[in-house]
Amino acid sequence: MPKTVIHLFHDDEDALLTGTRVAQRLLEVAPDHGVGVEVLCFGPAQRHLADGTSGTDIAYNRRIDELIASGVTVGACVNAAEADGSADELRRRGLTLRVARDEFLRFTLEQATVITF
User: Fold this and answer.
1) Which residues lie across from 73 on neighbouring strands?
2) Given CB 3.0 to 4.6 Å as the disulfide criterion, which of 19, 33, 69, 113 pairs with 117?
3) Can you tell me the mean pLDDT for 4-30?
4) What is the pLDDT of residues 40-94, one digit of tens each?
5) What's the whole-model pTM score?
């Protein structure tokens, strides 16, 4: 099955909120076209999964949780999560923690379309 991956990397408000919104909007039509949707949070954007203090962080985390609840695989880097102590919390929320290097290679092997915000 073809796949579109939304790669959330940058930590500015536009990237966090637009990237999650694009993932939500894709999910509205992707199944009708036989396309999967996946999200990978990495780098600066991953740190905002544990913050939750600003209005942007609250909206970003709410959208991440909604995507997970909708069945979208939302991943993050296990090494970064273990380094900052957020691994258990992210797993509890339903995020898939894997080595980012391996995820990027998997996307290539799957011939996924990756859109970075």
Assistant:
1) 38
2) 19
3) 98
4) 999 999 999 986 788 999 999 999 999 999 999 999 999 999 999 999 999 999 9
5) 0.95
Instruction: For residue 27, give Cα distances in angstroms to 14, 30, 46, 71, 81.
Output: 20, 5, 21, 10, 26
Query: Which value, to the nearest 10 degrees, does the dihedral of the CA atoms of residues 4, 115, 98, 63 take?
Result: -80
Q: Which of 80, 76, 79 is nearest to 93 (CA)?
A: 76
How many whole angstroms separate alpha carbon 92 and alpha carbon 88? 6
Q: What is the mean pLDDT of the chain?
A: 97
| Integer Cα distance of 67 and 21 in angstroms | 10
Tracing tokens 């999964």 back to the chain, one arrives at: 49
CA 100, chain centre distance (Å): 12
- For 84, the enclosing helix (H) or strand (E) is helix 78-84
Would you call 59 helix, strand, or coil by DSSP?
A: helix
Q: Taken in order 50, 51, 54, 56, is the CA torsion positive or negative?
A: negative
